[in-house]
């Protein structure tokens, strides 16, 4: 089993719709969780950290479920510019280590 | 100007050649990292450095070496390139002062390497 697993997609979603995807992780001791966004042929950029109580940033909501070991990302009122690959990132066994998922590709269609 | 830069952006080389990928940052961060990205896989850590005198192997360091020439510069070398080192390579930086463990990482634009 991969340490961090994501559905690779692509998720094809009409503009304005709500889309959600999950990421599962295997290390129950992980303390840090992030969503990064990566545009085609570009570098990853932090979208948001994921806090235990869940958090929201504009149209984006991230949640953590420690019992089931998954994090989720919800995007409301999706825009064409949201088309990208979303990378789930989980803290590893040491304070430097991040474990990266392979990403979920999202395509927003007009 | 970009905070984290990488050179070259694209490189084609032949099996057995030695090549160096360079990374520079103006963010003033002590921590620097080299990753590779392959289709269908998550980013994998090659080497990391927490300061100029600190170099550590990541999960896939075989076939690679690094040099931390200064706080702002971290180079990755492939001593004898092989085709399965064809990948997208990213340099990243982070600052522990931003919040403790597993702080945000800032990436360079990447180097696309093709080994023939």
Keywords:
heterodimer; A: 110 residues; mainly beta; 6-stranded mixed beta sheet; 5-stranded antiparallel beta sheet; 0% helix; globular; B: 116 residues; 7-stranded mixed beta sheet; 11 strands
Helix-strand pattern of chain B: EEEEEEEEEEE
The major beta sheet of chain A can be summarized as:
6 strands, mixed
Rg of chain A (C-alpha, Å): 13 Å
Beta content of chain A comes to over 45%
Average pLDDT figure of chain B: 92
Structural class of chain A: mainly beta
Explain what this protein looks like in three dimensions.
The complex is a heterodimer of chains A (110) and B (116). Chain A has no helices and eleven strands. By secondary structure, chain A is mostly beta strands. Chain B is built from no helices and eleven strands. The model of chain B has no long low-confidence stretch (mean pLDDT 92). Chain B is mainly beta. Chain A binds chain B through residues 4, 8, 31-32, 34, 41-46, 49, 87, 91-92, 95-103, and chain B through 31, 40-45, 48, 50, 56, 90, 100-102, 104-105, 107-110.
In short:
The complex is a heterodimer of chains A (110) and B (116). By secondary structure, chain A is mostly beta strands.
Furnish the topology, listing elements before pairings.
The complex is a heterodimer of chains A (110) and B (116).
Chain A: E1 4-6, E2 11-14, E3 19-25, E4 33-38, E5 44-49, E6 55-57, E7 60-65, E8 70-75, E9 84-91, E10 98-100, E11 104-109
Parallel strand pairs in A: 2-11
Antiparallel strand pairs in A: 1-3, 3-8, 4-5, 4-9, 6-7, 7-8, 9-10, 9-11
Chain B: E1 4-7, E2 10-13, E3 19-25, E4 31-37, E5 44-51, E6 54-57, E7 64-70, E8 73-78, E9 87-94, E10 105-107, E11 111-115
Parallel strand pairs in B: 2-11
Antiparallel strand pairs in B: 1-3, 3-8, 4-5, 4-9, 5-6, 7-8, 9-10, 9-11
């Amino acid at each position: 089993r991969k340490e961090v697993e994501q559905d690779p997609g692509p998720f094809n979603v009409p503009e304005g719709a709500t889309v959600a995807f999950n990421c599962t992780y295997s290390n129950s001791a992980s303390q840090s969780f992030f969503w990064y966004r990566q545009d085609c042929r570009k570098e990853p950029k932090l979208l948001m950290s994921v806090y235990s109580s869940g958090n929201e940033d504009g149209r984006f909501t991230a949640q953590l479920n420690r019992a089931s070991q998954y994090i989720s990302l919800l995007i409301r009122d999706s825009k064409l510019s949201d088309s990208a690959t979303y990378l789930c990132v989980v803290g590893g066994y040491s304070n430097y280590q991040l474990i990266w998922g392979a990403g979920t590709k999202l395509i927003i269609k007009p | 100007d970009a905070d984290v830069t990488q050179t070259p952006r694209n490189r084609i080389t032949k099996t057995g050649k030695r090549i160096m990928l360079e990374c520079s940052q103006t963010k003033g961060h002590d921590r620097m990292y080299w990753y590779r990205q392959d289709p269908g896989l998550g980013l994998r850590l090659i080497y990391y450095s927490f300061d100029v005198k600190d170099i550590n192997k990541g999960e896939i360091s075989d076939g690679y070496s690094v040099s931390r020439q200064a706080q702002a510069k971290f180079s990755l070398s492939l001593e004898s390139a092989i085709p399965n080192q064809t990948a997208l390579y990213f340099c990243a930086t982070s600052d522990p002062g931003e919040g403790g463990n597993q702080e945000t990482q800032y990436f360079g634009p990447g180097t696309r390497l093709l080994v023939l």
